[in-house]
Amino acid sequence: MLPSDELTKIGFVRNGIVETIVSTFDKNQNPIAAPMGISSEDEKHFTLSVYKTTKTYVNLKEKKCGVVNITSDPILFHRTVFKDVNPGNKLPKDWFTHASKVDAPYLRNTDAFIEFKVTNLTGSGEKAKILCRVQKIAKSKKNSLQVYHRAKSAVIESIIHATRIEVFIVSGEEKKAKELVDLVNHYTKIVNRVAPNSIYSEIMSDIQTRIKKWTKKR
Ligand SMILES: Cc1cc2nc3c(=O)[nH]c(=O)nc-3n(C[C@H](O)[C@H](O)[C@H](O)COP(=O)(O)O)c2cc1C
Q1: What would the CATH number be for the domain defined by 6-139?
Q2: Which element (helix H / strand E) includes 213?
Q3: Pocket residues: Cβ below 6 A from ligand 1
């Protein structure tokens, strides 16, 4: 175990939520990864709040362990949340490596990862509250020096909003959906100005296409 303030050192805020990517194995050892918000409880425990409809929930319930991958790369968030942007609708297997303390995969190309065991799983509604205990924290050796780029934050915010927009459109909550669509339109303008013709503007255009498709279905 690393020093007790290790979660704080890598940016966790007690009782606050940080955005990460959780990777797990299914019962046939196929790896998956999905963005998830995490709330730290103390220096050794954190909580996940996971929709029971996700594969991540099924895997965590089955395997009782996983890995939290730490990254601020919008491309990783995009490819792990919308699996259909990947070849064969699946994340490439060579993106993953087996963790050392738990039976779960981690994503190679991230800044750090936290191996964890599930210690408690509760929740009677559509979401489960999953209490996890840190088994190991490891930092990548890659140079993670990065300039602050507005496009990166704008893309990640838009991906988060997009996942909610789909839910609100499906449930007929039009006002809530419109508020988020307006925000995504705002972020699209920022990205097209600070990162024109880039992978980030391509991701924004993919998000806009998805929103149009979801809207048309109604
Ligand atoms: C930044 C971000 C954070 C997210 N946080 C959560 C979360 O805390 N709980 C959850 O159930 N879904 C969350 N989602 C949505 C899931 O990532 C999404 O439903 C995903 O497709 C689930 O994939 P899976 O079925 O492979 O597990 C989040 C999405 C993003 C982009």
Answers
A1: 2.30.110.10
A2: helix 199-217
A3: 19, 32, 34-37, 49-51, 54-56, 77, 81, 159-160, 163
Helix axes 174-194, 199-217, angle to 10 degrees: 160
CATH 2.30.110.10 spans which residues of the chain?
6-139
Task: Determine if the pTM surpasses 0.85.
Answer: yes
The pick from 81, 86, 110, 153 for probing ligand 1's pocket by mutation, whose C-beta has the most ligand atoms within 8 angstroms, reads: 81
Cα 110 to averaged position of ligand 1 atoms, centre (Å): 17
The atom of ligand 1 lying closest to the CA of 51 is 11
Helices 199-217 and 74-81, packing angle to 10 deg: 30
Q: For every one of its 218 residues, what pLDDT tens digit does the chain have, with 9 covering 90 and above?
A: 334 477 787 888 888 899 999 999 999 999 999 999 999 888 889 999 999 999 999 999 999 999 999 999 999 999 999 999 999 999 999 999 999 999 999 999 999 999 999 999 998 899 999 999 999 999 887 777 789 999 999 999 999 999 999 999 999 999 999 999 999 999 999 999 999 999 999 999 999 999 999 998 76
Instruction: Map tokens 């048309």 to a residue.
Output: 216
Q: Which of 54, 75, 76, 78 to mutate to test the pocket of ligand 1 (most atoms within 8 A of CB)?
A: 54
Residue 122's beta-bridge partner residues? Answer: 129
